[in-house]
Amino acid sequence: MADFDIAGNGAPTPDAETLLTPITKIGPTPRALLVRKLSDIVVLPTGRISSNERALVADILLQVVDNVEVALRMEIAVRVARVAECPPALINALLVDEPEVAEKIITGAQTIPEALLIEAAREGGRAHRLMIAKRTDLTTAVADALLRKGEPDVCIAILKRDGCRLSPNAINTLVALSATRKDLQPLLLRRSELEPAHGFMMFWWVGAEHRRRILARFSLDRRIIQDVLADLYPKVFRTKNEPDPFVRDILILAERRHRPRGIDGERVDMAMVLRTLAAAQKYPAQEIIDAVAMVAGISRE
């Protein structure tokens, strides 16, 4: 449809200098008028329209959204963003629309159901996820959905949101990504959800400054744990049968290092360490090499 039409009533009057017929912009197209009239209805307050009537108008607008240009869809999104009672189907369609359309809802609506934000995070593009990550009402479940793609800029935006509590699964994902993404490391290390296991895992791929930070934050004295469990060592390690592997592993984990115990649960003394090192130098068999690793507190893992 043409954007311009001949101006005036009756025969047009040519311009005196150019002899060209003047043209003026026509009024709104029928589709634009339809959009605005339907939008006027859907945003009516609750007292003036029933939920069923609003749902019917929203269903009609859903069909309209598929058949109008971006500018009109943006206009619909701006109007709908102001209505808390707008039917979810229409909001969902606008949330996964082109980024410039979705932005009007994501940034303009004060409240959007969590389920719709999760759906938009899954079905939308990176631009949609980045906008959702900046919403003030970001929840743990929505953050999980946003992180599934592992997009660095989305991860950074979420890590900067101190008010959003991240789930253990989200932290695991971010820790894994931090092995190759150095820009995630400082943001991740300041999160309260980070646990000692995460910190000491990151220890192996972060720089010296971050390693000092990890040691300062997560270092601990294990003497209380070791003292409480001390009587278990002789019971486990002096048994004639193969020790319970589960209990054995827990006792080893309770140590600061993965060093073996004697038959009474005592720590390996320096004399044993020296004899093991001497044997390894003289007979560098694999068993002796493994023994050196054990007395040095280095596990095969």
Distance between the termini: 70 Å
Order of helical and strand elements: EEHHHHHHHHHHHHHHHHHH
Shape: elongated
* Global structural class: mainly alpha
Number of strands: 2
How helix-rich are the residues, as a percent range? 55-70%
Strand proportion, as a percent range, falls in under 5%
Look at the structure and give the mean pLDDT.
82
Taking all Cα atoms into account, the compactness measure Rg is: 34 Å
Into how many domains do the coordinates divide?
3
**Order of strands across the biggest sheet?**
1-2
Strand count, sense and barrel status of the largest sheet are: 2 strands, antiparallel
- Helix tally? 18
Uncertain runs: 1-10
